[in-house]
Amino acid sequence: AGIGLVALGFSACSSSGESEGSGGAGSGATAGSGATAGSGASAGSGASAGSSQGGSSGGSQGGSTSGGASGAGGATTYIPTDMGLRVAFFGDQGLSQDAKDLLTVIRNSDVDMLIHMGDFDYQDNPAAWEKQMKDGLGDIPWFAVVGNHDTSKWTEYQQVIQRELDTISDVNCVGEVGVKHACTYKGFKFVLSGVGLMGSGHEDFLRQELGASTNIWRMCGWHVNQYDMQLGGKGNEAGYGVYQRCQAEGAFIVNGHEHSYARTLTLTDVGNAGHGATGDWDLINLAQGRTYVTVNGAGGIGLRDYEAARHDDDTWWSSGYASNVTINDGVRTASANIGDAAGVVIMEFGVDGDPRKARGEYRTVKGQIIDEWVVTQDPTGYGTNASGSGGTGGTSQGWDPQLCTAFCIKCASCQATPGFDEGDCRYQLSSGFELSDCQLGCAEGKTPSFDPATLPSGYQTMDCTEFDNSI
User: Fold this and answer.
1) DSSP for residue 146
2) What domains, with CATH codes, occur in the chain?
3) Are 363 and 343 spatial neighbours (Cβ–Cβ below 8 Å)?
4) Nearest to 174 by CA among 59, 69, 254
5) In this structure, is the dihedral angle defined by the CA atoms of residues 400, 209, 72 and 23, taken in order, positive or negative?
6) Rounded to an integer, what distance in angstroms lies between the CA atom of residue 471 and that of residue 468?
């Protein structure tokens, strides 16, 4: 570790300068990058994100082809959603009048699909729940993940979900329905996990499905929470591994379980102090290494209290809506919300003619808009940093994104070291840095490339061989 003041510039994860579909044309660098053209990938290999997932299990629909790498030259085409696609999210439903009325709100909101975040009816009554969903949503397609109140009758609930899947055309799914289930519908990729409740290997499944996806918009969903990732009294039930995997891949996260609504800022270091919360209250910037979390457990079962003693020192919440508190731009205000106690998150993708821009809202059953926000997505890399400036250059399409994100997440521990740029994944290495962690970046002989002209004084560029020799 003792390398004194040697400076090494890495922006392996930074490629906001690439346009949709260009993928850097396989060169591994922008003009003048100092890296050998094509050195980041073997000829025609494409990106690892261009693989296809064939077959299905658990009764899912067909095979999923989430590729997009063209092979020759390694150019990657990033797959947009249908422009204007509107997706609704809620969990913790029940069979109450509020639950029924909320389905009517969704039906009248020009929604294209719904993802249910678990806890269906609280009465172990799959038939009643199925009828409620069909009566309320009509022909709007819906998907669902297991909740803790669904496990005792899970086989029957799973059959209900499968019957709905069988009616949906043009959907590609793999995995076990509602437990380890990845689907793409109208260009929107979502991976649903029973983590903390059912099944195993959830992180690996997320890694496989997100790593192989070139969809611009990707979502991770599971029911349970972590203590810090909700406004009430829930504990650490999911584990941070799944959050970190979705953060690494630039996917946003939706949960249920706690009976309130909450949305974080952009998060860059989930699981550590402060969770790397950054950016504007109502503008989320997604890219590799960036996520945000939405919790909506207010699907009809009612609202619970915000627990001030547990969460008043949380610095990562942008918005929230509990029975006793409303949060707006991080400010907690006492409010009696129990009379308007159900709500839905609606996201619209591909807005303003931009396939990488989305809008979200939280709408109550009585029509209040409690929260509105904008999300931008850079599927090509680390995108825009916290200061709003762009990245430093192109990323070789041969660079393994799993290695890249592991490298960048580990290097985030060096934030206090001069030269670190959180958004661009650049680091100045000092004597406290573990070089063994940086070796991840060259483990497969691939070149993290960038434009030296954009780097601060004192940085130097290296290909993998040079890097290996230097340590």
Assistant:
1) -
2) 1-50+392-471 (no CATH), 85-377 (3.60.21.10)
3) yes
4) 59
5) negative
6) 6
Residue 57 has a CB neighbour count (10 Å cut-off) of 12
**pLDDT single digits (tens) 313-367:** 999 999 999 999 999 999 999 999 999 999 999 999 999 999 999 999 999 999 9
Instruction: Quote the pLDDT of residue 72.
Output: 34
Q: Bridge partners of 267? A: 291
Average pLDDT for the chain? 75
Place of tokens 């329905």: 177
Q: How far apart are the first and last CA of the chain?
A: 9
CB 256 within 8 A of CB 90: yes
Residues 6+ apart with CB under 8 A from 450: 9, 10, 11, 12, 14, 29, 30, 33, 34, 35, 392, 393, 394, 461
At residue 379 the predicted structure's pLDDT band, cuts being 50, 70 and 90, is confident
pTM of the model: 0.70
What local confidence, expressed as pLDDT, does residue 12 receive?
32
User: pLDDT tier at 439 (50, 70, 90 boundaries)?
Assistant: very low
Contact predicate 322/364, CB 8 Å:
no
- The mean per-residue pLDDT over the stretch 193-204 comes to 98
Return d(Cα 397, Cα 394) in angstroms, integer.
9
Residue at token pair 């906001």? 16
Q: Cα angle at 57 between 208 and 226, to 5 degrees?
A: 50
Residue 335 burial (C-beta neighbours within 10 Å; 0-12, 13-18, 19+): middle
Mean pLDDT of 96-113: 99
Q: Where are the beta strands (DSSP E) in 287-440?
A: 293-296, 317-321, 325-328, 331-334, 343-349, 357-364, 369-377
The partner residues of 278 in beta bridges, in order of sequence, read 266
Between 432 and 93, the more confident residue is: 93
The count of other CB atoms within 10 Å of the CB of residue 283 is 14
Task: Tell me the residue ranges of DSSP E strands in 335-407.
Answer: 343-349, 357-364, 369-377
